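Step 1: inspect the first sequence and its tokens.
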Amino acid sequence: MRDLGTMGESTFNLWCADAGLFANGSKIDKTGWDFLVEFPFDFRADPDVIHKSAIECRVQVKSTDDNKGKISITLSNLRRLITAHMPSFFVFLEFDGQSSAERAYVLHVEEELISKVLKRLHEIEQSDKENRFNKRTITIHYNNSHLLNSLDGNSLKENFLSHIGNDMSSYIVKKRDHLASTGFENGFAQINFTTQGKDNLRKLIDVSIGVEKSAKIQSFVGTKTRFGIKSKSPFVNAVNGRLEMPDIQPNTVGEICFKEDKLTVGFSFPSKLYFSPFNKMVPKELVKARVEGDFFDLRFNPFTGEAEHSFSFGEGIRLDVYQFRDALKLLKQLCTPNKRLFSELRFAQLPVLTFNVDCHGQVYPFDKELEALKAACEILSFFDIAKGVDTSLLEISYLTESIQQFSDLIDSSNKSFKVEFNVEDASYDPKKPTACICLTSVQIGSHVFGIFIVITGEVHTNDENGKYIIHSTSYNIEKKIVVPENLAVKREDLFTEIDPIEKKYSDDFQVIVMDT
């Protein structure tokens, strides 16, 4: 009687020897593999190669006289092959009744097969039936995509290497990571809990969208899952507690836009959108979603139209200056009685959601700050700055007057200027035209903005204090500077900026540099 097993192993041994591979046979037929195949070291003169381990793989050889393209293998043997960190292969040899192999197929134990077998193992382990893996089998299929190009050792070797690559360590890391993560694609546990009453249910929904910190629950059962298969025993089973969800992440990000009507530009603000995972389980009147921005929070029910919003510009809230201006403009509109705003939610992978916001008459407390922010935006525009300057409500409130004055200064519609100064230089002649170089600056949130201005004109003397005075109806801005507010500007750096300005006017004017 033909011994196909021995014929197959002998053929495999011969091919390995022909290719310079070392095929070490398993002495005990319970290991799940027939051969441990060792590759020779790579002897290239490369310092990095010296540190790499030699390639090894486990191989199970299956011999047959038919060509069905499939074979049943016990789960106990498969488990050893798929969980081994080193590469594993099946080599199927078809003899067709001949004395030598007619065809050979090489099947790599790759990630898809690993996951398939592990899922089956979990199904059996958690079932109520007998779970002896050595009594259960799974069918392994192979086809022409696994066919060895030629029946020799070199073809076998090249096939192995095409799957393993040239770095054994990288292969092992990748396989180990897959073994650790597969089956957890949809989570690692199933949580079941109960709560009583609509108030607790509403609070639970608020917890799920990050509004509330915790909600009361009556029972809590947690069961580990893998491949969607529940473990027989829960890892936690408790009664009467509080449920927290401390790391709530938005479902998507985008922006919310408020307009006076559909055809206006309106105000747009970056936003995060949260949908409660309980929305599919509760009545429509309890469904809730949340839109969160840097300074606002909007909760609404898309079915009933019920909505509530809140704004905060308090401690810790810093916004881009342009965004801050738009935020206060929006808030002013929301405080206008009998006004309706048209709103749009624009979020990735979702259709645009539109709704109306009815405004109710309320006292608007930020008129002064809004005017200061408008002036601040004009200053930023003058300095050609579109973004990157942030501020807080407290800073704007404190610096309102200086921001407005600086904005007035750069406004070309200003009519007249008066400069009063003393001169310590005895050679100064007040009868000659004078050019005064002045540096003026203002802080807007995170940055300081400054301009060197030159005011020219005839000099007069103040009879009361003896100081010189220049009255002028025009001035020139010769230099703009912008620095972060925490950056100390050296005095010598300022004079470096002044020197070319002074030279520009020195031929026609006596130049006075105002003390900076």
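Step 2: inspect the second sequence and its tokens, then contrast the two.
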Amino acid sequence: MILKITLIGLIVGVIGTGLGGILAVLFNEKASKYMSFFMGLSGGIMLSLVMFDLIEEAIEGIGIVYAVILIFLGALATKILKEKVKINGENASGYLMLTSIIMHNLPEGLAIGTTFLAEPKRGIAMAAAIGMHNLPEGLALALGFICNKASGKRAVIMSMIAGLPIAIGCFIGSSFGEIFSAIIGVLLSIAAGMMMYVVMDEMIPESKSIYTIIGVMLGIVIVKSIA
């Protein structure tokens, strides 16, 4: 089971961001025209999954008070880590985005692993949603490198590297969850806080257009329809 979940994380992470990187290389600046919609769509999907699935499962496991506290701590930890990241030199913007994506892909993998243990169908839905939002992440990351005159090969490789922490998170989440099943709610709460911060601080605010709003609304509808 652990190997299966880890493999799912590897596929979701590397292929998701890798495809985004390939799109950036193929379409270059043209691909950026669709960023607002896809970022909004993925943001809406992720926000809905956090609100309607992760948090609900966490509250069932540890109660609303502890869940709220840990969600806040997860978001705060992500904010502090993000502020501590300082990268300089050539392709600084690309590496900064790479660090940011790696930083939140780990808890996303953790979310897949712990959610998969609690309810496999929900875990698969979570993996699919994360895979979908990894595509615009990989696209944005690769464009950051390409705009700084990095090679297409380098941009794609960096995009794929950004997805690896999802597999690591899946392994840790599934292993830790099986041994200490009583604290799955704790892990889900922390992951929910981290993911919520990323969506609200990075994904939706960075894409300011009507297409972002349409994407967010469509993402929410998709999740509610599946649920």
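Step 3: confirm your contrast with the notes below.
The two ends are 24 Å apart (CA to CA). DSSP finds eight helices and no strands in the chain.
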